[in-house]
């Protein structure tokens, strides 16, 4: 009788501990860590970003020749909605390109791909003209190139 009581006192806490451990691990498997957002744009290079705080209506992202030559641009807007009025690309050779970009971005969206004129071009800087939308927070405008 004492042996049965001793075994019961030993196995019941052990069984409870093992069962609780299994339940905890199964729950961890249901919530995998999200993949980094940058992976979705792995073939693009981030040239810079600017926070839109509502006090300035234009910003310039300096790029420079050391960044390389590109054929396409993309604008990504994160955290809040943003109204983009104009984008002006200044090339290293002194020419300027201003694609039609008047657009209202929702938070966490991107532009269509903007093809640059000619072959691969070195970019000196890119100028954004924009404004936050009323009631929104601070938006982040990112410039990506390929």
Description:
This protein is an alpha+beta fold and 146 residues long. The protein has two domains: 1-32; 44-145, Viral coat protein p3 (Adenovirus Type 2 Hexon, domain 4). The chain has one helix spanning 2-30; strands at residues 45-52, 58-62, 69-70, 72-78, 82-91, 96-97, 103-105, 109-110, 114-115, 121-132, 139-145. Strands 2, 3, 5, 6, 7 and 10 form a six-stranded antiparallel beta sheet that branches. Strands 1, 4, 8, 9 and 11 form a five-stranded antiparallel beta sheet that branches. A hairpin with a 4-residue loop joins strand 5 (82-91) and strand 6. The N and C termini lie far apart (78 Å). Mean pLDDT is 78; it is low at 22-40.
Key words describing this protein structure:
146 residues; six-stranded antiparallel β-sheet; globular; Adenovirus Type 2 Hexon, domain 4; 20% helix
